[in-house]
Amino acid sequence: MRAVVQRVNQASVHVGGREVSRIGFGFLVLLGVEQGDQAEDCTYLVDKIAGLRVFNDPAGKMNLALQDVEGEVLVVSQFTLLGDCRRGRRPSFVGAAAPEAGREWYECFASQLAEKGLTVRRGEFGADMDVTLVNQGPVTLLLDSRKRF
């Protein structure tokens, strides 16, 4: 699994002109599910994201986690994170999980974040979404469950 984590002041998802989800201060997580992802990949990313200390403490140091600042999370599925652009000009998405598996792990990921006591909102899986955000910092991190060791 791959995730792009952005610290945001706000983020929202619209599908077909209607707002699907909105959060205030917290994380926008773009999540890509790879073929062969397992429970440990999901758990690793959930634990890592929930524990990331990238919010400023009173001294201005990035030292606080999401729960410390009562932040929210907006999770958006994005299979294009698995695009392989090494050859040619058209990305190959053969490494991305099939839609059924992608949806299952996406739901599992969002549910596990919520089980940690976080406020979690979701995009609409498989939809053509308009995602807006105000990146705060800017802070943007790339996490890959297969690069954890």
Brief overview:
By secondary structure, the protein is an alpha/beta fold. The chain has helices spanning 39-51, 99-115, and strands spanning 2-15, 18-23, 26-32, 55-56, 62-64, 72-77, 119-122, 130-144. It contains 2 helices and 8 strands, in the order E-E-E-H-E-E-E-H-E-E.
Explain what this protein looks like in three dimensions.
With 149 residues, this protein is of the alpha/beta class. Helix content is 20%, strand content 38%. The chain is built from two helices and eight strands, in the order E-E-E-H-E-E-E-H-E-E. The strands form two sheets. Strands 1, 2, 3, 6, 7 and 8 form a six-stranded mixed sheet that branches. The protein has a two-stranded antiparallel sheet with strand order 4-5. It is globular, with a radius of gyration of 15 Å. The protein starts with a strand and ends in a 5-residue tail after the last strand.
- Indicate the percent of residues in helices: 10-25%
Which structural class should the secondary elements be placed in? alpha/beta
- CATH topology (level 3) name: D-tyrosyl-trna(Tyr) Deacylase, Chain: A
Rounded to an integer in angstroms, the radius of gyration calculated over CA atoms is 15 Å
Q: Element order, helices and strands? A: EEEHEEEHEE
CATH class: Alpha Beta
Number of helices: 2
CATH architecture: 3-Layer(bba) Sandwich
* Beta-strand percentage range: 35-45%
Name the CATH superfamily assignment: D-tyrosyl-tRNA(Tyr) deacylase
Unreliable residue runs: none
Could you give the distance between the termini?
A: 14 Å
Question: How many structural domains can be distinguished in the coordinates?
Answer: 1
Give the strand tally. Answer: 8
- Global shape: globular
Largest sheet: 6 strands, mixed
Summarize model confidence as the mean pLDDT.
96
